[in-house]
Amino acid sequence: MLWTDRRAFLGFLSGALSFVGLPGALRARLLPDLDATRLRSLAEAVLPSRLGAEGVARVVEAFEAWLAAYRPGAERSHGYGSDSMDIRYLPPDPTARWRAQLEELDASARQRFGGDFAALSLDQRRSLLRERLAAAPGSTPTSPADADHVAVALMAFWFGGAEAEDLAYGGAIAKETCRPLDTVGERPAPVARAEGP
């Protein structure tokens, strides 16, 4: 087959190298989901306590849905007015790497504290996470797909969303949603600011 379109060829190549062509069921068997208990306990340690148990569960569920729909090699969205015309593609599926990181956190928790990561106190979990993240510092990603560690991916996922922005500014801005035109000039309704870690 002769490739005359560079964009089509690069999209095909990156997808072929990272399971994009596999049917969903086969891909799920090869790349099983992250352990829900470990992921939830991680989320409790890295997301603001202001979210509460219900909010953490909602974020974890949305993160799992994002990961399930992740398509390696898919073209990234690029905003209008971008200073670069380069087309970028999503990296390979991070599920296996993130699963290994959760398992490693569990092993470290058992070795250091004598229990699974999920059974540790928030302070103990945060202590382990600080050590892991300090040992392998990376750039701050704007997308969870670019995160080197699952904890950073989870934070990038939530902090990049509308709820985090609303809490940071104390107003119902509802980023990336459409508001009725007759309300555009009005100040956003107030929301309580985030507290704590």
Question: Please, could you describe this protein's structure?
Answer:
The protein is mainly alpha-helical and 197 residues long. The protein has two domains: 24-74 and 88-160, no CATH class; 162-197, no CATH class. 49% of the residues lie in helices and 0% in strands. The chain has eight helices and no strands. α5 (95-113) crosses α6.
Essential attributes:
single chain, 197 residues, mainly alpha, 2 domains, 8 helices, 49% helix
Q: What's the quick description here?
A:
This protein has helices at residues 6-16, 24-30, 36-46, 52-68, 95-113, 122-135, 150-159, 162-169. It is mostly helical and 197 residues long. The longest helix is centred in the middle third of the chain and has 19 residues, at 95-113.
Topology:
Blueprint: H1 6-16, H2 24-30, H3 36-46, H4 52-68, H5 95-113, H6 122-135, H7 150-159, H8 162-169
